Amino acid sequence: MNIVRIALATAVLLLLPLVAMQFTDGVTWGPADFVVAGVLLFGSGLTYELIAGRRGSVVYRFAVGLAVAAALLLVWVNLAVGIIGDETNPANLMYGGVLVIGFVGAAIAGLKPCGMARALFAMALAQAFVAGIALTIWKPEGGSVELVRVVGANALFVTLFVGSALLFQRAAREEPQGLATGNLQTS
């Protein structure tokens, strides 16, 4: 694992808004924004390295990358603008449950591809449930445009989580049966 490489990548990515702030008023980040973004980016990179570094399969690593990127994007969007209404809408807190399902599922799966596929399918289902619950109890202020935005954003995340789950399934098929399921028999 190369923590220095992750830290450098994080710093380079944080330079983008810093440079943009010099040329436009459309980007207005304060110190707290940089800290939160730095923690999210570094944490995501570290998570990827810790999980994907344990297995050699390219498909498995891509599945982990897609899952981590989707989770990062879910948090980032919720903190920046919110999916349901704006970032202050308490209904957006339900998306934390989607992430908890992913963390718990990954722990139960022992990061094995077959179990990870199940965890990501569960995340996709939870994402869809959050959208359904939110649209049942929350009436969009922006009318149909807001409704399309909420449904579209949730559909994107469901698609990303399902895509990662399908990649984990493929990775499980590529591994020796005992290793993929964790049922390796020793004599």
In brief:
The protein is an all-alpha fold.
Protein described:
The chain is mainly α. It has helices at 3-23, 31-52, 58-80, 95-109, 113-137, 143-174, 177-181. The chain has two domains: 1-53; 57-181, no CATH class. The protein has seven helices and no strands. Helix 5 (113-137) runs antiparallel to helix 6. The model has no long low-confidence stretch (mean pLDDT 89).
Q: In total, how many domains does the architecture comprise?
A: 2
Unreliable stretches covering 5 or more consecutive residues: none
Average pLDDT rating: 89
Secondary-structure content class: mainly alpha
Q: Indicate the overall shape.
A: flat
Biggest pleated sheet = none
Number of E-state strands? 0
Fraction of residues in helix: over 70%
Radius of gyration: 18 Å
In N-to-C order, the SSE pattern is HHHHHHH
- Alpha-carbon distance between the two ends: 33 Å
Total helical segments:
7
Strand content is under 5%
User: What assembly state would you assign to the polypeptide chains in this entry?
Assistant: single chain
